[in-house]
Amino acid sequence: MPTPDIAPAALAYFDPGDGRRIAYRQHAPKDGAPTVLFLPGYASDMEGAKALAMDGFCAARGIGCVRLDYSGTGSSGGQFADGTLSRWLEEVLASIDLLTEGDLLLAGSSMGGWLALHAALRRPDRVKALLGIAAAPDFTDWGYTQEEKETLRRDGKLERPSPYGPEPSVIWRGFWESGAEHRLLNSVIDLVIPIRLVHGEQDQEVHTGVPLKLMADLRSADVQLRLIKGAGHRLSEPHEIHAILVELLGLLERIA
To answer: What is the model's pLDDT at position 159?
Structure first.
């Protein structure tokens, strides 16, 4: 699904109300079109392949697009070790309230999918559709062994080898503990909007049982899961991004 080259939006910053310096890039919608808010995954940022593809796709069609970096990540201020699900959700909600108007479609990658679900629950008058990309609700619960949880309690952090580079992936106790306050699975998730989930069939970080369980728990009757054969967690190959954009277009047509 090719799109013409669009100049990236200028880097800007907003303050959610307590002095935090949260980086974002924004293309404004045209003629009352909706806005897509892209939410990155854990320890990721707004400059990844999926975010850039979505930004260009939206800009070429007059759809608004906002990308942001959570505090402590990317171009935002703060320390990553201070990040919690609660803190980053505050920033997402502030970006909705301060930066956007009109109808919203939330697109969340991995942890961003978890945050998108919470944001949709808290802004039901604004969020009209949701796209989960390898969405990982409750991963602080099911994503760690008992031994790893004991390490987090004892040492305050957990380091794991990262499949994406030489530096280890670090989980801090504050973030892990905040996950318990934001569990969604195994109870009814009271969203009735159109929801699309795109997931890799070979995702080793968020196994396919997670989106299947999420489908079952969502109240909405308009939920579809697209499994991509052979795909892993990143979903950043050209054909995988194409599949994501196809689902995005379908959702935009549903709320037009």
So the answer is: 94
Among 109, 110, 138, 178, the one annotated catalytic: 110
Domain positions in the chain are: 12-138+185-255
pLDDT over 90 at 165, yes or no: no
Residue 109: active-site member: no
Check if 236 is active-site.
no
The single-letter code of the amino acid at 9 is A
pLDDT at 15: 97
Nearest to 120 by CA among 108, 111, 138: 108
Mean pLDDT of 145-149: 94
Q: In the numeric block, which tokens belong to residue 59?
A: 């800009």
Q: Give the pLDDT confidence score for residue 1 in this predicted structure.
A: 56
Contacts of 53 (CB under 8 A, 6+ apart): 241, 244, 245
Of the candidates 55, 69, 103, 203, the residue annotated as catalytic is: 203
CATH topology for 12-138+185-255? Rossmann fold (3.40.50)
Pairwise CA distance, residues 241 & 239, whole Å: 6
